[in-house]
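Re: Re: ligand-bound prediction request (bumping)

Still looking for help on this. To restate: I need the protein modeled with magnesium ion bound, output as structure tokens. Inputs repeated here so nobody has to scroll up.
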Amino acid sequence: MIVAGVMSGTSADGVDVAVVSIQGRGSYLSFDLLFHHHTEYPKEVRKAVLAAMNASSISVAELSRLNFRLGELYAEAVHRAQKKAGSPKLDLVGCHGQTIYHQGTSAPYLGKKIACTWQTGEGAVVAARLNVPVVSDFRPADMAAGGKGAPLVPLLDYAIFRARNKGRIVQNIGGIANLTAIPAGAGPDAIIAFDTGPGNMVIDRLMQMLFNRPYDGGGKVARQGKVLQPVLEGALGGPYFKLRPPKTAGREEFGSEYSQAFLRRCGKAANADVIATATALTATSMAHALKRFVLRHGEYRDWVVSGGGTQNATLMEMLNQEAVNLGLSLKHSDEFGVPSQAKESVAFALLAYQTWNGQPGNVPSATGAQRPAVLGKISYV
Ligand SMILES: Nc1ncnc2c1ncn2[C@@H]1O[C@H](COP(=O)(O)OP(=O)(O)O)[C@@H](O)[C@H]1O
Ligand SMILES: [Mg+2]
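Reply:
Sorry for the wait, this slipped through. Here it is.
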């Protein structure tokens, strides 16, 4: 089956499309990545997406329009990727959508405790434009089964990175950073997975505020600054880092308000020092999460990174230093045949394939769900 996976993450930078050929079932599942293509959101779309995320007030008309507009945009992104891949006939599309709200932990609401999530980008529009069935809205079924709805990438991580003789930690650095730890020779039940905290989100927001740029290209600004140790240590003492896994984070935890408070704590420091400190927060919080929640439960050798954060050379140097201290060897997912920007979109191709075949896509040990669940909703043509 030829499946296109479509991912647009919390960074709201754009849309990644992976065209993947998938065969087999269960442990015999195998796949080849045929093509990966990234389309940036047009400026005004990015602005609307960021405004909708975790907004305390926005009109339902606006949300409804955004849902249909993103459907059009996803269809165009898939079409572009398909053409660049030599126009293979697509059998199925898996479209994650844009998360505009995610509350992984249940809290009282109108007399009942609920957890909830919302991904937007209308699957019916994507299906109609491409004339291909679409699986979308993957997270709610896991949450209805008692899970946190995230992370969903462990299915893919397990398929690619499991090894009989060595434990591997797979770390994606998107807006939020998440890891999947797979002990040597482990079954899917032994996987540990959770969001470690900010990936690029805080760096991006501060770059926007201080330099009017969307991100720190190559980590050049961070390289010129020095890390403000008291600010870093204060931030590492924050409540999210103490929570035990499974746990998920988003703009609700590390969005605009968080970055503003972080900036206040930096006082009169030079702008480059603020960015260096935010970059150190990403690297150090990952290392702390490993020490606290992963390494004491097993032996691991590789730390495999992916996501947009791998383009930040300063962040990668900091991570490399942490890896040396932890006795891990830092690797890129590219070395395993999955370009680091493509990984999450490949995951949603695989998840759609599972759903199409009536198979579960969540890994209960990763999301905290009580059972495996078939994920998503299907829009037929
Ligand atoms: N050349 C680069 N230099 C530094 N950071 C980059 C570069 N390219 C991308 N990034 C970072 O990666 C982010 C996008 O990563 P991505 O994996 O797509 O995250 P998400 O899944 O949250 O969308 C950007 O917002 C930016 O912070
Ligand atoms: Mg992205």
